[in-house]
């Protein structure tokens, strides 16, 4: 086992988690990241682990994977903290979605009915109950949905912990090392070319997020159908002695989209996020921030007086069907771990487990089997 080498292209949460789990199994795992590890979509995200409240029609097939990975997170976080010595602030207060007018209430009723039919942990609350849980929300709240099973983690701390854990487990992290080409010979992967050097590998795991399709050397029939989906966010600072908000809170759907607020233990509240098809443009725009603040203020009026701490944008890796692409390809030894869209943080544990199982045993866990590249070939065949 120790003689097997796996090159992981991409050092976000997916690549780092996968390499870490491989290293724990005695595999020589090397992560190649063109910039600083974890500074793209992983850094830009909000760290929500919310498969219950976020479940919506059309994503039923993805739900078992999301729920299973959510169940894996407590052990994943505990193991990560123990090995790295870094707290990742895994929090279990839960999350709520609120309604401010009759139209919002009807939308929540539809959402609640759908989620309950799927057996999800989602509770209906009236406005008074919601304000008891979060007294600083808009006093006009009429109703809310609450899930105690939807949690959160500080994604930026997770990155720091993963970098330490990977290297303490025997893995190698090469930052500022751009993979120029994946080397394929005779339909078998042989390694990668990075910074003018050939790094041989028995397997190559593609975990380069929105940039995965741009990697040279991958045959057309093995290129993952992923694209960048821009998300703008901001954070505000709260008084150190008063966090103002305890739970993750989702606002109602409006013309500009839906806003959520995520409280952090470092006295910040994150506000997100836009969903924009803008290619690889990561600029922060006045319109994007205006809509985020408008939606946040409608739900949480105290934000008006809070100082803005940071603004940023990231690129989610969206696939054709907005579900992840996991496991084998048409090229022997070339493995996908891409296309997680808005669920990259949530799906990190199950993705790592699936890739490790495939590399070591030749098969995927049952829950991950619907998410290989094969599903796109089936669509073409139809």
UniProtKB/TrEMBL annotation:
GO CC annotation: cytoplasm
Segment forming the signal sequence: none
GO molecular function terms listed in the Swiss-Prot or TrEMBL record: flavin adenine dinucleotide binding; glycine oxidase activity
Protein name: Glycine oxidase ThiO
SUPFAM superfamilies registered for this protein in UniProt: FAD-linked reductases, C-terminal domain (SSF54373), FAD/NAD(P)-binding domain (SSF51905)
NCBIfam families in alphabetical order: thiamin_ThiO (TIGR02352)
EC number: 1.4.3.19
GO annotation (BP), single: thiamine biosynthetic process
Domain FAD dependent oxidoreductase: 5-356
Lineage: Archaea, Nitrososphaerota, Candidatus Caldarchaeales, Candidatus Caldarchaeaceae, Candidatus Caldarchaeum
Swiss-Prot/TrEMBL keywords: Oxidoreductase, Thiamine biosynthesis
Pfam families: DAO (PF01266)
Pathway listed: Cofactor biosynthesis; thiamine diphosphate biosynthesis
């Amino acid at each position: 086992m120790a003689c097997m080498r796996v090159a992981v292209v991409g050092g976000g949460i997916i690549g780092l988690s996968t390499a870490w789990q491989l290293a724990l199994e005695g595999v020589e795992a090397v992560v190649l990241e063109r910039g600083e590890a974890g500074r793209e979509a992983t850094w830009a995200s909000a760290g929500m682990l919310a498969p219950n409240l976020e479940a919506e029609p059309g994503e039923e097939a993805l739900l078992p994977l999301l729920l299973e990975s959510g169940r894996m997170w407590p052990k994943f976080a505990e193991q990560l903290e123990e090995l790295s010595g870094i707290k990742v602030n895994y929090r279990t207060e839960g999350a709520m979605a609120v309604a401010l007018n009759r139209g919002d209430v009807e939308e929540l009723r539809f959402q609640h009915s759908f989620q309950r039919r799927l057996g999800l942990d989602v509770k209906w609350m009236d406005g008074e109950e919601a304000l008891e849980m979060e007294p600083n929300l808009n006093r006009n709240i009429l109703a809310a949905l609450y899930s105690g099973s939807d949690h959160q983690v500080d994604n930026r701390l997770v990155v720091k912990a993963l970098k330490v854990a990977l290297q303490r487990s025997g893995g190698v992290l090469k930052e500022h090392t751009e993979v120029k080409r994946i080397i394929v010979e005779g339909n078998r992967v042989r390694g990668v070319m990075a910074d003018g050097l050939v790094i041989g590998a028995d397997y190559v795991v593609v975990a380069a997020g929105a940039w995965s399709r741009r990697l040279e050397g991958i045959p057309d029939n093995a290129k993952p159908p992923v694209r960048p989906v821009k998300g703008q966010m901001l954070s505000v600072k709260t008084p150190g002695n008063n966090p103002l908000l305890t739970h993750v809170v989702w606002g109602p759907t409006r013309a500009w989209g839906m806003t959520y607020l995520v409280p952090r233990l470092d006295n910040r509240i994150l506000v997100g996020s836009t969903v924009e098809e803008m290619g690889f443009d990561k600029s922060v725009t006045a319109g994007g921030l205006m809509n985020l603040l408008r939606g946040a203020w409608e739900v949480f009026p105290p934000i008006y007086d809070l100082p803005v701490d940071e603004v940023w944008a990231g690129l989610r890796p969206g696939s054709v069907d907005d579900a992840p692409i996991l496991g084998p390809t048409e090229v022997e030894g070339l493995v996908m771990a891409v296309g997680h869209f808005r669920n990259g943080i949530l799906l990190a544990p199950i993705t790592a487990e699936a890739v490790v199982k495939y590399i070591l045993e030749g098969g995927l866990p049952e829950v991950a089997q619907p998410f290989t590249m094969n599903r796109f070939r089936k669509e073409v065949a139809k």
